[in-house]
Amino acid sequence: MAKHLSISERQGVQITYLKGTVANSTHNNYVVEVTKRFNECFHTQAQILPLPVIFANQKVKEMVTQDRFIDNVIATMMKTTVAIFTVGTTAPDAPLFELGYLSPAEVQSLQQTAVGDIISQFVNQQGQIVNQELTARTMAFPINRLRGLHDSILVAGGAKKLPAIRAALAGNYANTLVTDVDVAQQLLAED
Questions:
Q1: How confident is the chain (191 residues) per 10-residue block, as mean pLDDT?
Q2: Quick check: 172 and 158 in contact, CB under 8 A?
Q3: What is the DSSP string of 83-109?
Q4: Of 4, 51, 76, 110, which is least packed with CB atoms within 10 Å of its CB?
Q5: Could you give the CA distance from residue 42 to residue 14 in angstroms, rounded to a whole number?
């Protein structure tokens, strides 16, 4: 999607990550390239949350978020009016599983109860969060706030992500979906 952006004349655009960074991943999620393109097109500098996506416990997360710099980034994030987000899977090779944030027991539990994640928050088929304790440890824009945004844009495709895409739509987290033809046809056939 970022490849197709045009230079905008809008002024005062602020771009902020909706979650902590996924460091040390063997999967290229093109975050650097996408961020660079958005910065170029909107004449801005994205605010990045230089934190892990998932903390070991809620207490550590709360302590870190008291830092003035981090608090300012989070405050900007919470003012979001347009969100562009994706979903993840619960496949064994899911980046959130491979990064070591979660114990083997947590991974197994999520694979049994969740169909995927929305902004790193694991949900069931109806789009409901399956593990509140894990969500409390997760540094991310609360998915329930996606429902009230003017533009909540889900960008995801591929058969592996179809269950999580369905969950995001079932939970009414997205009012726009950008996907591939195969996923679109499958979703339309289910209606």
A1: 84 88 61 82 87 93 94 93 95 90 95 97 98 96 96 96 97 97 95 73
A2: no
A3: EEE-EE--STT-HHHHTT-S-HHHHHH
A4: 4
A5: 8
